[in-house]
Design brief:
The protein has 221 residues and is mainly alpha-helical. It contains 9 helices and 3 strands, in the order H-H-E-E-E-H-H-H-H-H-H-H. It is 47% helix and 4% strand.
């Protein structure tokens, strides 16, 4: 989906956002038409279309005056990738396609969950950070995002990444992004304190993406 936020995503994609949160994939059905006809497509059952688990929705969105802001409802249910720098052209080797079935991919995910769960030390630091952010900035992480972090980080580590890097990415794209809706001009001191807290809690320069984002926010006002 290109330029998703030319219209309000939470309006036209509302039903899909709700469906994809259902734990039972058998309930992933879209109501398309109210009537049943003998000429309906074979995969249209009682006017409903089943969404298979191997379907992923990937879209682009611009952040400018010609588009709508993406709401927390959408961000909280997505995995954003921020493109903050201009890409540099490079030569890539010719690589053949790889066929990967959903069952095999799901098995790899489950292996990652079992093998690389977030450490108790990191979980404790995340909980302490949550309390700090609630007290100072009145923003909470939310159970949905914490659950997503518990799924994302093990897979990130299984792909060769570092646990703190995975946590850093989720914090920057899921939690600290919410700060944009705050009165940042009145919160410069709190943002500076948060950078100090992050370095002290997780280790100096360990949470690079989050700290870079917080420093950019400070420069906006």
């Amino acid at each position: 989906l290109d330029e998703m936020n030319i219209a309000r995503v939470e309006y036209y994609f509302a039903e899909m956002l709700s469906i994809l949160e259902m734990p039972n994939a058998d309930e992933w059905e879209l109501d398309l038409v109210p009537n049943v006809w003998s000429t309906d497509p074979i995969n249209l059952d009682r006017g409903k279309l089943r969404i298979p688990q191997n379907v992923w929705y990937i879209g682009t969105a611009n952040n400018d005056d010609s588009t709508y802001a993406i709401s927390d409802k959408v961000y909280d249910r997505a995995q954003p990738i921020n493109l903050d720098a201009k890409g540099i052209a490079f030569d890539a080797p010719d690589t053949g396609p790889v066929n990967l079935g959903f069952d095999h991919l799901d098995m790899l995910f489950k292996e990652a969950f079992d093998k690389y769960p977030i450490s108790q030390e990191s979980l404790k630091k995340i909980q302490q950070l949550d309390l700090w952010v609630i007290e100072k900035l009145r923003v909470a992480f939310g159970n949905r995002i914490l659950k997503q972090m518990g799924l994302f980080v093990p897979v990130y580590v299984a792909c060769g990444g570092d646990e703190l890097e995975g946590i850093d990415y989720v914090l920057a794209t899921k939690i600290f992004r919410k700060f944009e809706s705050l009165n940042l001009a009145m919160l410069r001191d709190e943002l500076r304190e948060l950078v100090v807290y992050m370095n002290k809690s997780f280790g100096k320069n360990k949470m690079k993406e989050s700290i870079e984002y917080l420093e950019r926010l400070q420069k906006l006002f």
